[in-house]
Amino acid sequence: xxxxxxLREFCRLSWLKAFFTVKTPPLTKPSYFRDFPELTxxxxxxxLSCKMICPCPGAIDVVQTDGVWNPQITQGHCVxxxxxxxxxxxxxxxxxxxxxxxxxxxxVFAHEYIITIDTKKCMGCGxxxxxxxxxxxxxxxxxxxxxxxxxxVLIRVEHGxxxxxxxxxxxxxxxxxxxxxxxxxHVIRNVAALQEDR
Amino acid sequence: xxxxxxxxxxxxxxxxxxxxxxxxxxxxxxxxxxxxEVELGYVKKGIEKIMIGRPWQETIFLAERxxxxxxxxxxxxxxxxxxxxxxITVPRRAELLRLILNELDRIQSHLLANYSYCxxxxxxxxxxxxxxxxxxxxxxxEMMTGTRIMAAYVVPGGVREDLSADNAAKILEATYHIxxxxxxxxxxxxxxxxxxxxxKGIGVLSMxxxxxxxxxxxxxxxxxxxxxxxKDDPLYIEMGWHMITRTESxxxxxxxxRFDELFQSLTLIRNGIxxxxxxxxxxxxxxxxxxxxxxxxxxxxxxxxxxxxDSAGQVVYVSIQTPSIPNIEVATHAMMKNLASAADxxxxxxxxxxxxxxxxx
Lengths: 198, 361
Prior knowledge:
The complex is a heterodimer.
Chain A: H1 3-10, H2 13-21, E1 38-39, H3 49-53, E2 60-65, E3 68-73, H4 83-87, E4 93-94, H5 98-105, E5 107-117, H6 127-131, H7 133-138, E6 155-158, E7 161-164, H8 175-179, E8 185-195
Antiparallel strand pairs in A: 1-4, 2-3, 5-8, 6-7
Chain B: E1 7-11, E2 23-29, E3 32-39, H1 47-51, H2 56-64, H3 71-86, H4 92-120, H5 124-145, E4 154-155, E5 158-159, H6 165-191, H7 193-199, H8 207-212, H9 217-221, H10 234-238, H11 251-275, E6 290-298, E7 301-309, E8 315-321, H12 324-335, H13 343-351, H14 356-360
Antiparallel strand pairs in B: 1-2, 2-3, 4-5, 6-7, 7-8
Helix pairs in contact in B: 2-3, 3-4, 4-5, 4-11, 4-13, 5-6, 6-11
């Protein structure tokens, strides 16, 4: 084993050719890789479906710039789960081939909101009922104590306690939770992963 | 005073052989390691506490983040527990897709475990070969779910996405590639004289010690115990699963058992793909209140979730019992007892495939 052995080894044409030409192929992202959601250009209707299903606090927000609503992703918070892509009814967001798969396979997330009131904690102040944007639309003259003559409202105070009248009207904004001084009201989002018939 | 030990030798918390931080305190007499003690707590996350009060669409992401290597199985076990509480049925196609993904996950986890062992006994060439082969399994997982790890593929009532026929054919191709390559590597491991010197007869976990302790998974099966949660799963039995055990009980047996299980996983994936029939992949389903203890076989052993949810599907109580907890204890007190050399401490510990992130969750 002398230096000539090595020289002979490295002076072979095939070795030299391989040394100068073989390269590692560049790293490419496969088409199916689920990256951070991107905008497709479809019009956002500001329904907040994406924000409501997002499992990570502060990852997605729907903001208005120059009069146009669009979702905005905070990349440090997003875990790239793709729920917003699947939940958006307008196809505003896309990520990998998830949007194409969603359309092809009929993937949907059904959801409903359930309002629960802890009657032991509720003191019937009516803060939640007056703050609720759905209530305000149905009965603009709702009393300061949260009482209402209309029975079409979402929640109203009856016999000194808050009562849920029409659970199906809830949009899940959770303003009631924020305004309750006792933490008596809680809005739960129930999600079911479904597949439409193809 | 009579001197009992010569030197207390700390290994870790940062050690080139460990993927995660943990500290092994060894009491040595000369070169011989008399007893060891493992100190954990460097990467405690407190995931069980964070889960409380959250619905399933948030808890499944937290469950995955318990462990980066076997994230699929954490997702599967929490969703299956919720399904059992609520009485949700899963379409057959979705069940088979779950099986295929779980076995792909087992393949990459076992390959990583065996890579770690080869790396620890300084056989880096074989280690890198195995790590390269693992990429094939990771690519298959990515093709199926969209991400390499933390896929959140399993949801109550089914799975996230369907597997197209093209992708199924590619996964099938990948299983054949893994099998041909793996046969070479297993032969290298079996016949390597240096590997034999570092592995055979070292870190023996006797049948009595294994029975007395709560050891689970490949570590238990390498000592001759028939412990596998898959034996109670009718789908696995249907796909041709059978118990694999070895009797040598040493480091060599544990690694070889994982190699044997890899071949079995490849067969299970092929049978699963062959049994796929067109159909729905999601059923949805409503959550009901209840409490359950559910166990399935993770790559490292029995993974148990004890979970209680309220009528809206929010977690009231959760306790995650991961296989690494008993395995680390057994590795410390039974396997690393009276070792001939301090150099065998790390290799014996790694041969039990300890996952610190799982143990500290």
